[in-house]
User: What shape does this take?
Amino acid sequence: MTSITLWRPLLGALAAAALLVPQSAAAQGPAPDAPAQAQAATPDRPSYDVRLRSDADGTTWTGRQTVSFRNSARTPLRFVDVRLWGNGHPDDGCGTPGKPSPVRVSKVAGGTPHPLTVRCSALRIDLKKPLPYGARANVSFDVAITVPDRVHRFGRDGAHRYVGNVLPLLSVQDAKGRHLDPDVGFGESYFTLAGDFRVALDHPDSLKVPATGTTTRRAGAPGRTVSTNVARGVRDFVWAAGPFRTRTVTSPGGIKVHGYWTATTSAEGVALAMKDGVGSIDEFGKRFGRYPYGEIDLVMSDGITFGGMEFPGLVMLATAPDMSAVVHEVAHQWWYGIVGNDQFADPWLDEGFASYAAHTYEGGDTSEFCAEGPWWWDDTSAMTRSMGFYADGRRSEYVGVAYSGASCALQDLESTLGSQQTAAMLKKYARDHWLGVSTTADFKRAAQAATTKDLTPFWEKYRIH
Ligand SMILES: [Zn+2]
Assistant: This one.
């Protein structure tokens, strides 16, 4: 994401072009003779089938969700954790009488639910029977969503509703165990494996409903439309609803860029965001591998006080006449979306790489800023700190290190390796982790493999551990 204060200093660099091959080793699970030491991330290959119906203005959504999944670990899978991130906001009461959580799940089938934990954001479901390696199962439940009355990616903006980080998602179990991190109230704490979604949204005709994926619309009950959205190889599903104005531009590279904006958003800002959205999605496709989803929605408003937020195939943008964070958020389609990472453990891998990519597109002289580093607060600071570290009163350090500092580090790496070598390295790195999950260790290996220089001093300088 970006905060308002981040727009100008967003940094970033590299270049090249190629077609990439889907499916990383992580997404495919272990090879038959893979060593047993590292447990594959499981459950994987999730497939979500969701039907939700809204009220008159998109504030409430109710329906049923089924998710099927595979056990990619050698050990039987006994339970799944479903994350209800819409309940994770620190301002929301969890279990407070008279103040229900914004996302409620009930009538669970396919397993036995436990009480909610992690501030009502984690639901463990014990499977009916242990799921063997390679087998698939599914769980189903009713979902009821109430969009909170605040300006937020899960919130309201005048007559518009944003439903981001809300659809219940399967959590990951891997060599680190269960991932039950909390939402710390800023940045992203999310970690999911890429999967497929089919989400039917039944809403009044009067509402435009941009969403992740390719949308087909048909008439529903009188006065209503059913928008069915299909997305493959994505980590999340988001939508918005409201009386948006719309326009679609097809990029020279063949990507449909759908603009949605509120009536009070400046026409100049919309035009600028559309232009940079079209330009950057093609440019990043050349650099990191072609954008695989065919279309992207830019949801723009002058009322998005949280700046911007990335989701697969849809970004939310605070849009002013002369700026938006569109390039940074489009870069996230690759860095977090296509090349996944544990956003709680390694925020620099998504925010830093998106900032660096945006810098390469937008240009600008960052040498003075970068020379002012380090951005560390103290000896415990490091590029590779988690959201848990920053949650302890270090939010502004998170911004300085994980965004700008990481972009400076990647620019410095580019100087060290050479621009062409860096471009080739990043393209290969993206291909190797396409729709999979990458770690800091993976990136360090990729960078070191691209040069005969010993990068140890570089990693130490930037505290990339
Ligand atoms: Zn970001």
Q: What stands out?
A: Residues 5-36 have pLDDT under 50 and may be disordered. The two ends are 24 Å apart (CA to CA). Residues 395-417 form the longest helix (23 residues). The CA atoms of residues 128 and 437 lie 29 Å apart.
